[in-house]
Amino acid sequence: MILFLLSATWLLAGGDLLIKNATILTVTGGVIPNGDVLVLNGVIKQIGQNLTAPAGVRIIEANGRYLMPGIIDTHTHIALSGTNEGTDAVTPEVTMAEVVNADDTSIFTALSGGVTMVHTMHGSANVIGGTNVVLKLKWGKPSEELIVKEAYPTLKFALGENVKQSNRTLLPGRPQRYPATRMGANALIRTELMRAKDYMATWDRYEQLKKSKNPPANLFPPRKDLRLETLADLLRGKLIARCHAYVAPEMIEFLNLSKEFGFKIGAFEHAWEAYKITNELKAAGVGISVFIDSWAYKMEAAEGIAYNAAYCTKKGLLVSINSDSGERIRRLFNEAGKAVKYGLTQDEALKLITINAAKQLGVDRLVGSIEVGKQADLALFSQHPMSAYTRCEMTIIEGDVYFDREALIKKRAGASAQKGGLS
Amino acid sequence: MNNHFKKWQPALVRPVAIAFLIMVLAASLLDPAQAASPEVKPAYALVNCRIFPVAQPVIEKGIILIRDGLIEAVGPAGKIQIPEDAELIEASGLNAYPGLISAHTNLFLEIKEQAQPATPEEYMAAFSQPAEPKEFPWLQIVEKIKPKKQTVETYHRVGITTVVVAPHEGIFQGQSVVLNLNSDQIHGMVLAQPWALHINFATERGVYPSSPMGTLAFIRQKFYDTQHYSQHLQKYRQSPHFLKRPEYDPFLEALLPFVIDKKPIVFQCNNLEEIKRALKIIKEFKLNAVLTGCNEAWRASQQLKSASIPLLVTLDFRPPASSVYAQQGQAIREKAEKEIYPANASNLVKEKMNFSLTSFGLNDTDFVKNLRAAIKAGLPADQALRSLTIEPARTLGLEKQLGSLEPGKIANLILTRGELFDEKTKVVKVIVDGTVFTYEEKGQCEKR
Question: What number is the ipTM of this complex?
Answer without folding.
Answer: 0.93
